[in-house]
């Protein structure tokens, strides 16, 4: 690999599939046990759905792809319908034998 792996990926891409974009980049560039921080603008994903539902769906996408959500913070009153979500990769967490 020409590039070294990174500890953190920050994404503020305002795309409908931004969780997928972050996961794809994490699979290629994030160290085991690394972190991601995503800025989510709900209206860029689906303006017909309540922002809370969008945030929950993005967090669930992270969970479904081996990330543990660490924190979710809305950016109100500074930015309407925005949230920051941080998560940690579970790739390096070993499951004890017999569980």
Summary tags:
34% strand, Rossmann fold, disordered C terminus, 3 helices, alpha+beta, elongated, 99 residues
Characterise the protein shown here:
It is a single chain. The radius of gyration is 14 Å and the shape is elongated. The protein is an alpha+beta fold. 30% of the residues lie in helices and 34% in strands. Strands 1-2-4-3 form a four-stranded mixed sheet. It contains three helices and four strands, in the order βαβααββ.
Compact description:
The radius of gyration is 14 Å and the shape is elongated. Residues 93-99 have low confidence and may be disordered. With 99 residues, it is of the alpha+beta class.
Mean pLDDT across all residues, rounded?
Answer: 88
Low-pLDDT residue intervals, each spanning 5 or more residues: 93-99
H/E element sequence: EHEHHEE
* Total number of beta strands: 4
Strand order in the largest sheet: 1-2-4-3
Task: Categorize the overall geometry.
Answer: elongated
Structural class: alpha+beta
Q: What's the quaternary structure here?
A: single chain
CATH superfamily caption = Vaccinia Virus protein VP39
Helix percent reads 25-40%
Q: Tell me the major beta sheet.
A: 4 strands, mixed
As a whole number of angstroms, the C-alpha radius of gyration is 14 Å
Beginning-to-end CA distance, first to last residue: 34 Å
Q: Remind me, CATH topology?
A: Rossmann fold
């Amino acid at each position: 690999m020409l590039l070294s792996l990174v500890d953190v990926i920050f994404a503020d891409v305002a795309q409908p599939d931004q969780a997928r974009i972050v996961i794809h980049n994490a699979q290629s560039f994030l160290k085991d046990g690394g972190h991601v921080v995503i800025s989510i603008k709900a209206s860029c994903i689906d303006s017909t759905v309540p922002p809370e539902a969008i945030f929950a769906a993005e967090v669930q996408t992270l969970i479904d792809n081996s990330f543990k959500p660490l924190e979710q913070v809305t950016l109100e009153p500074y930015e309407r319908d925005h949230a920051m979500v941080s998560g940690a990769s579970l790739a390096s967490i070993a499951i004890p034998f017999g569980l």
